[in-house]
Amino acid sequence: MRDVRIWVVVICAAVCIAVEARAADSIVYTVTQLRNAMNGADPGDRIYVAPGNYSSRLWVQDVHGEPGNMIQVLALDPDNRPVFTSNAASCITIYNSSYILMDGIIAYGGGTPTQGSNNIEFPYGHHMILKNSYSYDIDHNGNTDGVKFAHSDNILMYNTKIESWAEGGSAIDQMISSNSLMMRNTITFPDMSPDVAANGTQPKGESFENGYYKNTFIDGSSRALQFGGSGGALHWEAWDMVAMGNVIDGGEASVAYVSSTTSVFDYNTIVDPEIWIMRILREGGDQQTAYNTFRRNLIEYGTLNRIQNIGPNTRPETFDYANNYWYRWTNPGGSIPTLPGGETNPAGGTDPQLDAEYRPLYGPARAYGAHAPAMEAAWEPYTDWFAWAWAKALEYEPDAVAGGEYRVAPGLTVRLDAAASTAGSGSYGDHTITSWTWDIDGDGVFDDASGETVELSFDDLAAMGLSPGTHQVGLRISSDTEYDPIVDWDLADLTILAVLITGDVNLDAKVNVTDLGALAANWQANGPEIGWGHGDFTADHIVNITDLGAMASNWQVGVEIISVPEPASAALLALGALVMIRRRTRR
To answer: Where is the Ice-binding protein C-terminal domain (predicted)?
Structure first.
């Protein structure tokens, strides 16, 4: 048996050495070197692209990593990313490939008016990641896209910026695309000419089960976030799409449903669209646009052509319009529109007071839009559609954890603790949380305290205007990545009691067996850290018979049903017996 174990150890060590030896790092300085490195790469290899201008097309095909061992193409210096350009075709084409990560790449000027092409494209790819990259300045009017995923599935595009693609193309074009996630990207076209068909997102040609999460669209083209298109589908161009947590500021139309069905547009923030809020059109396939959603969105708008642009052969009355917050700043009293089929529980009419991060400061508006507390829970069920991409994105994501539930009473302090928050990681290692800021008074501004942990007294909270009752405190963290910082938020409940009841260890306004258990668990504990939460009610930093007696005097205060024959003496004897049993057991 011992010999078998030795051989197992030897074999495992050999396998580990072989795997480590197979993975290799290399640095490239030209397009030819990069092409050769990718064509010769083994799963797990990391190819670093040196700073510089790469002015000819990169085309590779049939390059494959493995699950858990992606081939990684990374900027050697995140502060000086490599720049790819091509005046005749796409800048970067990775064809019929899989399990490849591209991180920190810049591409501009791809394609021609007659050839089309795109800045970056992954045709016939699967399990591919594009992150921390930048596609910009296609200076012609052809059907040229910032990024294109055609005949692709299981794609993640994360924290990438697309700016000023071709007038006639899309920022992100997804032709026959499925099970993919576009997350934390920025899409902007500030200098777009009027009356051109430039889309932000366009999943079409029978695309399905794609997600759009926490993206930002600034002057995001004629149709910022579009479900469907005109890709030659037989039936619907797109179905089972979901968009949540997105901010759409400006552009001609915020959302367009085009030959699509069962697509979800919920919990998004829309600001000042120029012509319409939504378009409902049919441009492909033999089925009518129907059965989509528009729910829990926050819409701030002014003068429009109209709320909706409804084309022929569509069924807008089948849409689920529900629980949206509307604010028309040119006519607050007329904020809530009439939608086909009617809207369930609309709200609005008061300025949501959006801050620089598009978070509403007006209390009733906070339950709507991209930053609503319920948004992430609403998003979660849809992540099964793009499970691989979502799992990868979570590796990069910071996660703010505000802790709690917190409780405090007169004479005591409460310690807010965000230590469970995480910064995420990237291609170059773990990220770092650089700031923790807190909104304690509930005004939506994170300026009341800073730090991973914060100690506050009952009097401190009173000075902030917090009265007894349950409140929500907010936490904002900023994670320092190799590129731009990424922020995340969380909320926690804080209950302030009006009266402190001796014996109530957990501050739930009752003295019962839960408190007794806490006291027993800390029996005779002593030291400067020992306090009320351990069962020390006399502030002498030790848990002893004095504290037990104090608890007995209030036994079952706050409990609805009390049945004790002789309250004080009987309770004290029972409690003392329990504690003594515990002491003997410890010995």
So the answer is: 563-584
Sheet harboring 269-271: ordered strands across? 53-54, 83-85, 106-108, 134-136, 161-163, 186-188, 216-218, 247-249, 269-271, 298-301, 325-328, 347-348
CATH tag for 397-496 (out of 3.40.50.300, 3.40.718.10, 2.60.40.10, 3.30.2350.10)? 2.60.40.10
What are the tens digits of pLDDT across the range 273-317?
999 999 999 988 888 999 999 999 999 999 999 999 999 999 999
Chain-centroid distance of CA 264 in Å reads 17
**DSSP label at residue 410:** T
Exposed/middle/buried for residue 320 (C-beta within 10 Å: 0-12, 13-18, 19+): middle
> How do the domains of the chain map onto residue ranges?
26-166, 190-396, 397-496, 513-586
Look up tokens 């022929």; give the residue: 312
Calpha distance 154→125 (Å, rounded): 8
Residue 66 φ/ψ region, left for φ over 0, alpha for ψ in the -120 to 50 degree band, beta for the rest: beta
Confidence of residue 568 (pLDDT cuts 50, 70, 90): very low
SS3 state at 8? helix
Percent of the chain with pLDDT over 70: 88
pLDDT tens digit string along 306-322? Answer: 999 999 999 999 999 99
The first and second tokens of residue 577, run together, are 């017996």
Q: Count of CB atoms within 10 A of residue 383's CB? A: 17
Nearest by Cα to 409 from 360, 371, 461, 450: 461
Full-prediction pTM beyond 0.85? yes
Query: Tokens at residue 378, please?
Result: 């609403």
Pairing of strands 347-348, 216-218: unpaired
Q: How far is CA 280 from CA 234, 309, 312, in A?
A: 19, 6, 9
* Helix axis angle, 545-553 to 513-521, nearest 10°: 180
| DSSP letters for 121-184 | E-TT-EEEEEES-EEE---S-SS-EEEEEEEEEEEEEES-EEES--TTSEEEEEEEEES-EEES
Residue 587's pLDDT is: 47
Tokens, residue 113:
């008016």
Q: Residue with structure tokens 């030659």?
A: 232
Predicted pLDDT of residue 96: 98
